[in-house]
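The instructor's notes for this session suggest beginning with a concrete chain rather than abstract definitions. Hand out the sequence below and ask the class to guess, before any prediction is shown, which regions might be ordered.
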Amino acid sequence: MLSLGTTVLSVEDLTRAGDFWRAALGYVNRSEPSDDWVILDPPDKQSWDAPGASIALSVTGYPVHYPPRIHLDLYADDQAAEIARLLTLGAREVDFDGYPPDADWIVLEDTEGNRFCVIDTGERD
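After discussion, reveal the predicted structure:
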C-alpha cells in the first residue's frame, strides 16, 4: 500500500522558501540543506518513513506555471488569523475569480509563487 510521504515544491530561492515554510507550518529541516535541496518535516517526526507529510524544496530553475497543476490545502481553525500570519511571512494573495459564493477557502501563494489554499475548518453556524 502506498502512502503520501513528501510533496516537492520547485523554488528559486531555497533560503527564502525554507524560511517561509518552516515558519508557516512549524516544520524543521530533516538534515542540513544542500545548495539546491532541503526536506522539511513535522517537528515530532521520528524517521523519514514515519507518518506525517513532509515538504521538500528543490531549486530547479523551472518557471512557475499558471494555473498550477497541483497545490497544497492547509487547514485552519481560524482562517482569518492564519491568512494574516502567512501574509506577514511573505505569502501573497492571489487574484482569483473562481470562488463560489460559499467558498471556505482562500488562495495564496508562497514566496516562490507556489499556490496553496487556506481552508476554514472552524465551526460554522
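Then share the key points. The beta strands are 6-11, 28-29, 37-41, 54-59, 72-76, 92-93, 105-109, 115-120. DSSP finds two helices and eight strands in the chain.
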